[in-house]
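Notebook entry, structure prediction.
Reason for the run: the old model in the group folder had no record of what sequence produced it. Starting over properly, with the input documented here first.
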Amino acid sequence: HPFTPLDDGTRTFLVERAGQWWFPPGLVDRVISAALECGVDPSIEEVLRPRIDGAVPPTLPDGTTLAPHQTRAIAAALAEQRGLWALAVNAGKTETAAALHVACGGRKTLYLVDSTVLIQQGADRFGTMLGHGRIGVVGRGGLDRPFVLSTIQALHARRGKPEATKLLSQTEILIADESHRISQRLWFPTLGACPAPMRIGMSGTIHGHDNPMMLEAYFGPIIAEVTEAELVDLGWSAHATVLMPYCGGAVLTDRAAPDYQSELYLPGIV
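New structure, fully documented this time:
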């Protein structure tokens, strides 16, 4: 049944086709709530593969032991199948993503980022944790391997091409890093073309986004959260006094700069 209006803005993400409303899977709860408010008891049909079951692994293949907050995030993903991980800087998002892949039996995983710098770093780290022979990178080969990394820009540019279509159709676990950067124009065509049932967006800066539904659309609401204060209490992070001196030039503030990781991120942030 058509239901209008949806005052919470949900309508922005709805498309009507042949008398039915279609919308991104992460908005199921919001759409049900909005429909009930309008006196409609909706019937929801999902065009995703069946749910993926698994078990939280105690360690990664390279021997890395998972922390309680990491296992908590993985357990939430297995229970909910989709949602956002609000994990503060230094919570170990990369290790947690690798562990989710292992928890699900090594099923086909697509790991999306929005920076070529993060691609190389990610490929190296996932290769160390999972085995380099399991890692592929869009644009560099290995797309038939179990764990494939890509920038969203690379997949967006390859829309409709056989290699991209095959990758998206085979993906069972979809993970988006730095998901606070998701945009409707660049991300939605790719996210909407992937029927993966396990869908996780992760970021340290989810809260305060000016359009939460943009982040939830293809992933869902926050299902696991780790704050900076919790990491300090656990001894993972130090309580910091932060100063912001003027550095001059853009090299230390540009994420794409080659020395960003070595000269700013690691010594100055982490």
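Summary: The two ends are 51 Å apart (CA to CA).
The old model has been moved to the deprecated folder.
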